[in-house]
Structure formats: structure tokens, C-alpha cells
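input
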Amino acid sequence: MRALLAVDGSEQSTFAAGAVATLASITHLTILHVVDLPRLTFSMLGPEIAHDMTGMAQQAMQEEGEHILTQSLSLLSTVPCAPRTRMEEGAPAEIIMSVAKEERIDLILMGARGKGQMRELLLGSVSQRVLTHAPCPVLVVNSPLDNIRNLLAAIQGEEDIERISRFLQKHPFPNGASITLLTVVPIPRSLLRGGASASEEKVEQALKSAEEFLDRAVGQIQTSSYQVNPLVSLGGPASTILEEAKLLNPDAMMLGIHHPSTLTRFVLGSVSHTVIHHSAHPILVFR
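output
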């Protein structure tokens, strides 16, 4: 598996570096730092001094970048392959996605660096853009991730089954890892308590259909490497996924994401947006 670790010197990118050791079958690892040089203006100082000041700022940021890469490299002594470091200059999200495409990366790892104290601001603009447009799955790490033995994967359609199956074929997790496949039937749980018998019958039909869907998913995803268990739940998709995650307390969550123009429940800005921004667990977005 070919992995790209994007680092920016934050605590969260240190968590992402630590998460690399929890993955299996890494054959290629690039540690990337992007120097995001701001547009500095020193017009009041004259052109020569302004040029010198810009050069000094660029040199300082490059030196800081080298330090960040060296520090990240020191955290990866147990990785089976020899990591390579890379420093680029430009817009971070665009560079991360460009390098991922250039190096045919299978998984991007990055920290969830927040921009404020509000939970809704958990992800910064870089993480948000990479999650939305990256050419491969992305693991966003918002807390220390020392082991991956239990995962919760939320799926909602045949396309999700194909995508998660394709990703798992790369054997990204240690042997014996347990994966709970969750699908949410968007029906209020209150319908199971009282109400008209016709409504109860419809609910039972919906549950049976969801169970059959998960049976197909387990049959397609099940391998000798992982233990796969189905789970059907009722309620609002985003809140139910978060509730199940709180109960199961997985090491990480897996979530399908589709392009925002796709007509589906799992579009950024609705279910996936809510789960990603409110999850207490690292999230791997597969596509």
C-alpha cells in the first residue's frame, strides 16, 4: 500500500504520524510538508527591502519545514519501508492532492487541525478540501491512534460496498481486525413503540431489506484477514452513526463519501459532514 503523510507541525499531524505504524502492508511512504508562503507586502519599505524581507520569510518557513519533516521522520522508525520526505511550496490542499495523484497514493493520512474552539470548526479548510476532492481514501486523525483492531464502517448503498471492498483488498489493517458494518434505516425508532400495525409492518420490511443488504456486503467484504459483523440501526443517519460509535468505541471509523453533486444521503454537507465534524474518533473516508 502506498501512503502519503501530510504534516504541518501541529499536534494533530503528530497523531497522524503515529497512526502510520498501526497500518499494515505499507510498501511506500512519503512524508510531505507544504510551505504555504503568504503574500507579504512591504511596499512602505521600498522594493529592495521588501524583496529581502520576503526572502527572509521564505527561508525561515523552509527551515521550519525541514525541522517538521525531520521530527516526523523520527516518529516512523518502525515502518517497514524507508520513508522519503518531500517539501513543496504552494496551496497545501492542492499540493497534497497533486502529490497523491503523481505518486499513485492509496491512502492519505493527515491531522484534523481545528480553526477554532467550536466543534463545527473541528476541520480546517485544508482537511475539508482534501476530504472532498482527494483521488484516494483519506484518514483524518483527531486524537492519538496507537492501534487499529476494531473499526466501525457506515455504508448505505451498493457503491459503498464496492468502494470499501476495493480498499480492503490492499490489506490496510492488521490481521484479525474486526469491522462492524453499519447501515442506518432512516425511520424514527418511536414507530416500533405502539402506532398502527401497518406502520410496524413497513418498519419490519425496511429492517429485513437492510439486513439482506448487509448480508450481501459481508459476503463480499469478508476475508480471512478480517472479521466482519453486520449491524442495522434505526434513526437519523448522522446522529445514529455517532451514537453507535459512542457505544462501540471503535479505534477508528470508516465512512463513504460522494461528490457533493451526487444525490445521496452521504454527501459532504449533510450526513458525512455532521459525522466528520462531530466524531470523537479518527475517520477514514473511502471513495
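quick obs: Residues 115-122, 260-269 have pLDDT under 50 and may be disordered.
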